[in-house]
Amino acid sequence: MEVQLQKKIDELVNISNERGCVTHSDFLDPQTQTQAAALLNKRKVEHVFCGGYEGAERSALFLLPAWMEEPFNPGRYLGAVNITPSDGQGHTHPEYLGSVLALGISRAKLGDIVVNGTGAFLVAFLPMAGYIEANLTRISRTSAQCRFAGLEEITAGSRELTKDRCTVSSLRADSVVSAVFGLPRAKAAQAIESGALTVNWTEMLKPDKQLTPGDMINLRGHGRARIGQEVSQTRKGRTAFYAVREK
User: Fold this and answer.
1) DSSP character for 132?
2) How would residue 246 be classed by pLDDT, with cut points 50, 70 and 90?
3) Beta bridge partners of 203
4) Nearest to 165 by CA among 245, 247, 242
5) What is residue 128's predicted lDDT score, i.e. its pLDDT?
6) What pLDDT band is residue 98 in, cutting at 50, 70 and 90?
7) Bridging pattern class, strands 161-168 and 197-199
8) 177, exposed or middle or buried, with CB in 10 Å at 0-12, 13-18, 19+?
9) Which of 128, 143, 155, 168 has a Cα-to-Cα distance from 228 of 20 to 30 A?
10) How far apart are CA 95 and CA 226, in angstroms?
């Protein structure tokens, strides 16, 4: 992964130097952002990560040419699509993501999906945002309307979160995944071994791996959750924690 990232950064730096313009990567998860920043800082390359709004999780890497003096303007490169399902019901992050991916779009071309009470905001590069606005007509089985929205309409506080109390025998990955996503433990273990689980945006293949408070877990097809910092023991000796999930 780091070798591929290094090659991509070399490519972006060369393009930026040759053309003297702003260049950018696809959207990156937080772990990849950290790795990319370390590589760029060693080379003293001017750069910025931007996901369209303050507090964004997925961000694109932008390389800035030496001549550039004005502040970086994300609105020149990124846009948002406001998606409103017609049924007025709360749809989940996986439902929005799955419907957009069904258009044949790679996840790397999409930023955050911020779910709120009436719909969701999706961040994408401007051409992609226009394509989604024109072609996304359904969320799951429900018709939906899309409109292009300004980045200023998105706030991290727009996210609707649920906080569920879970109890497990231990913070083993398969136990936690089973409790958080409502799967039988055997199926949770099978999903982990198949590569469906990431922890802090890194693939985890061992069902018996111990997780820790604060870990972000993402199970393909089921969504993601963060293990709360407060972990306690029940009277029966089980481990209790809160799973914070985006609706």
Assistant:
1) H
2) low
3) 198
4) 242
5) 97
6) very high
7) unpaired
8) buried
9) 155
10) 19
Which residue, chain included where needed, has tokens 């649920």? Answer: 162
Dist CA 49 CA 9 (whole Å): 13
CA 40/CA 72 separation, integer angstroms: 18
Token pair of 142 as six digits: 């429900």
**Helix/strand/coil for 213:** coil
CA distance 201 to 229: 18
Which pLDDT value is given to residue 1?
56
Written as six digits, the tokens of 163 are 């906080």
User: Do residues 164 and 240 make contact, with C-beta atoms less than 8 angstroms apart?
Assistant: no
User: What are the Cα distances from residue 39, in Å, to 35, 45, 171?
Assistant: 6, 9, 34
CA distance 63 to 77: 13
Tens digits of per-residue pLDDT, 2-17? 788 889 999 998 998 8
pLDDT band of residue 159 (cuts 50, 70, 90) is: low
How many C-beta atoms surround the C-beta of residue 114 within 10 A? 28
Question: Does the pLDDT at position 168 exceed 90?
Answer: yes
Please name the amino acid found at residue 228: G
Beta bridge partners of 197: 219
Look-up of token digits 């991916």: 101
Q: How confident is the model at residue 90 (pLDDT cuts 50, 70, 90)?
A: confident
Question: Residue 129 has what pLDDT?
Answer: 97
Which among 16, 115, 107, 127 has a CA at the least distance from the CA of 61?
Answer: 16
Using CA atoms, how far apart are residues 217 and 226, in angstroms rounded to an integer?
6
What sections of the chain are H helices per DSSP?
2-19, 30-43, 93-101, 126-135, 173-181, 185-193
Calpha distance 159→122 (Å, rounded): 12
